[in-house]
Amino acid sequence: MSGHSVPMTSSRERAGSAYNGYLMLAIFSAITLAVVFMIIGAIPPEGAAKSVKLAFVGTLVTGALAVLFGLIGFFMIQPNQAAVITLFGEYRGTVRKEGLQWVWPWMIKQKVSVRAHNIHSEKVKINDLRGNPIEVACNVVWRVSDTAQAVFDVDDYKEFVNIQIEAGLRTVGARHPYDDMSDDDKTTLRGSADVVNAELREELNERLAVAGIVVDEAGLTHLAYAPEIAGAMLRRQQADAVIAARKKVVIGAVSMVEDALAKLSQDGIIDLDDERKAAMVSNLMVVLCGDREAHPVVNTGTLYQ
């Protein structure tokens, strides 16, 4: 017999109703004063029967409990805060109106902050597209957009966010190489920050949608090779830099030699045959491309001796 998973029903936030807390506070204050005056007027005289005294005590306790019970229904809503109202386990709506509010005391109120939260993740060690171990971390700005989903569809939405940030970071980090090692690497983690950050934000929004959470901003804050390969990759980057510098030096030297030969020929300073041109080009390239200072050698004869 094969089992079938039951799809989870997604909750949806709806507006909840609450009474104006300031009005209810005035009403309860008036009721409290009335109860106090009634109790004062009902104080039994000395020598009253025991039953009368017990009735007075019962009235006093009942009035005090009624007032205290009514005060339980008051709650305050701060700016960018909401209160999820439930009645015997049933969702009865979300109150977002700021200020003092009042609901029936048997209704449970759970406050949820809808302000922007900022999380800087821990460094996560992952493998990039080429399998190189790297360390990455990110900064995420998120907020609760649907309080019903955040409270009822996940167990702990804040812990859920932390776990999904790490999972999303691993997913996006594994899609691209750390650096462009070939011409096919169009998007890299190091060189395509805007693209990678946009992918990370989209990935997190998809993962956190089930909890009614929206990611406003996400971006990498740390990116480096893992310590075990950092030295080798540093030497590779240094080699790439040396090759690029050598290439630029050679191109510049060739241009300078070409200009020198053209100038000598144009001004008629000296008429060089192919062999002398080759020797001159060789000498100039050695001087211009060499790492060490050139030491001239005086030739008192001719090129052919």
Q: Would you mind describing this structure in some detail?
A:
- The protein has 305 residues and is α+β, with helices and mostly antiparallel strands.
- The chain folds into 3 domains: 19-112, no CATH class; 117-225, Band 7 domain (Tetrahydropterin Synthase, Chain A, 2-Layer Sandwich); 231-289, no CATH class.
- 46% of the residues lie in helices and 20% in strands.
- Strands 7, 8, 9 and 10 form a 4-stranded antiparallel beta sheet that branches. It has a 3-stranded antiparallel beta sheet with strand order 1-5-2. A 3-stranded antiparallel beta sheet has the order 4-3-6.
- β8 and β9 (133-144) form a beta hairpin.
Highlighted features:
single chain, about 300 residues, alpha+beta, Tetrahydropterin Synthase, Chain A, four-stranded antiparallel β-sheet, three-stranded antiparallel β-sheet, 7 helices, rod-shaped, transmembrane
Q: What best-fitting shape do the alpha-carbon axes yield?
A: rod-shaped
Roughly what is the average pLDDT, rounded to an integer? 79
CATH topology of the largest domain: Tetrahydropterin Synthase, Chain A
Give the helix/strand class.
alpha+beta
Keywords: Membrane, Transmembrane, Transmembrane helix
Organism: Erythrobacter longus
Subcellular location: Membrane
Protein name: Membrane protein
